[in-house]
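Exercise: predict the structure of this protein bound to 6-chloroguanine.
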Amino acid sequence: MRIDIITVVPDLLEGPFSHSILKRAEDKGLAKVRVHNLRDYSSGKQKQVDDYAFGGGAGMVMMIEPIAKCIDALKSERDYDEVIYMTPDGETFNQSMANELSLKGNIIILCGHYKGVDERIRQKWITREISIGDYVLSGGELAAAVVTDAIIRLLPGVLNDETSALTDSFQDGLLAPPVYTRPADYEGLKVPDILLSGHQSKIDSWRFEASVRRTKERRPDLLEGKEI
Ligand code: 6GU
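Solution:
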């Protein structure tokens, strides 16, 4: 899978993709993430990428031309399944969107900045608009990093234990159960006996019950319309 991210602050995206799981996915050849500096596609002398809003008002608007040039240049190299615009007024990101996007081949992600992009970009080039929650970030970059991380860790072979993404919180619509490691007794704080019993089917049932209990307590909204 390949993800091309278009941004006016490429530096913001350097850290997340040069470490840990995402770095491993790149090294194994399972995912390619490429960051593109929108200023490289500006034809102006000042490398201008934003301008005043027609009709007035505070805040700058990202111009059509550099974005259109960048997207068209990418599309001339390969086909893309989605051109995603990161914006607080997009559809709220969740695990099922991550699952769906992880099945795509190539994706472009455009990071919004300032007051946003010229509406005509959204009309003509964007296939999907995503927000990561009901709060405002100063740009779409961190949100793009969140979405990219959530997608790439789902690609087969990226996680060491292939089954581990299946037991994540949200993957089956439930929160994950509590986990423990050694020592079994830390100054009187004990691990539940069942987990030390070696009885796998009992352990599985305990984990399922614990997931349901935790979901009821913390996120009852996830259980609505579900039979458990
Ligand atoms: Cl995608 N962008 C910005 N600027 N703020 C956000 C967001 C995106 N998602 C939540 N808040």
